[in-house]
UniProtKB/TrEMBL annotation:
InterPro entries noted in UniProt: Phenazine_PhzF-like
Keyword Isomerase belongs to the record: yes
Listed GO MF terms: isomerase activity
Family indicated by similarity: Belongs to the PhzF family.
Alphabetized UniProt keyword annotations: Isomerase
Name of the featured protein: Diaminopimelate epimerase-like protein
């Protein structure tokens, strides 16, 4: 016998329906078997499906509503952090008049391993989420040489690389590579199968911007985890890039930074790094693509 749950399909970090990063958000009983969530995520076949508790967690603050959250990829993998899935979940909640009131200002998302993440509305239709800032450690020596060889195979040629770093606590599976801005990052061909040899699940490529409209641009690839290997706009990648570029460009803590992910769909982000709080605030606009009921066994 089947059941149904309400869902929203949105695209994050863009107001264009053909832009941004799509995500499904499902309001459901989170005590159901994990296979239920894996199957629903596979059926949606979106870069991420966020599952929220079907009703808010009790809160003593009338301006705050709270939900439990879990994220699953279309290949049935559960992940512990997803920026665009979080901001999409916030938009889905704010759109539900039966879940929020006119007083609601803050949404809390209670994760399994990452603590509580918050979201709030900002001017201009933006939603801001707060994520943990990540640190990088530079990869040197033989490992640096090996990764450069992998990247030469990945891009089909040698490219000028300024920095190679690995994420530290909480971001151990993240690789970040700064490519010289003279390289055309947007149009670089990327062989996802070759990139697997780097040994990281999340591979970020970034350069300083040439046009002055944003401070830096990026692309992110997660072969085997996202459809087509390239993530359209990756929120969590900016947990590493924002502190990195802030330090490199001399941008003060708490100063807003504009960035763009130059995947084929593309997306725009406003970012604030708080060095004292060790958090990154991501601000983005979203578009609702569809709402309805999803059926599951």
């Amino acid at each position: 016998m089947s059941a149904t749950a309400p869902f929203s399909l949105l695209t994050a970090f863009s107001t264009r329906v053909e832009g941004g990063n799509p995500a499904a958000v499902v309001f459901i009983d989170l005590s159901l078997p994990i296979e239920t969530f894996k199957t629903i995520a596979r059926n949606f076949n979106q870069p991420i499906t966020a599952f929220l508790s079907s009703s808010p967690i009790p809160s003593n603050d009338p301006k705050t509503v709270a939900f439990h959250v879990r994220w699953f990829t279309p290949n049935r993998q559960e992940i512990d952090l997803c920026g665009h899935g979080t901001i999409a979940a916030a938009k889905a909640v704010f759109e539900r008049e039966d879940l929020v009131s006119k007083e609601t200002e803050i949404i809390e998302f209670h994760t399994l391993t990452r603590g509580i993440m918050t979201a709030r509305k900002c001017d201009g239709g933006f939603i801001e989420i707060q994520l943990p800032a990540g640190d990088l450690i530079e990869i040197l020596g033989d490992e640096n040489d090996e990764i450069r060889k992998v990247l030469a195979r990945t891009f089909g040629k040698e490219v000028s690389i300024n920095y190679i770093g690995a994420g530290r606590e909480g971001f151990e599976d993240y690789l970040m590579v700064e490519i010289d801005k003279k390289e055309n990052l947007k149009d670089l061909p990327v062989d996802g199968d070759a990139l697997r040899d780097a040994g990281f699940s999340t591979n970020i490529f970034t350069t300083a911007s040439l046009n002055g409209e944003e401070r830096f641009i990026s692309r992110m690839f997660a072969p085997g985890f996202v459809p087509g290997d390239e993530d359209h706009v990756c929120g969590s990648a900016h947990c590493l890039m924002t502190p990195y570029w802030s330090r490199k460009l001399g941008i003060a803590s708490q100063e807003e930074i504009v960035a763009r992910q130059v995947s084929p769909r593309g997306g725009d982000l406003k970012l604030v790094w708080s060095s004292d709080e060790k958090v990154v605030r991501l601000r983005g606009q979203l578009a609702v693509l569809a709402t309805g009921e999803v059926r599951f066994a």
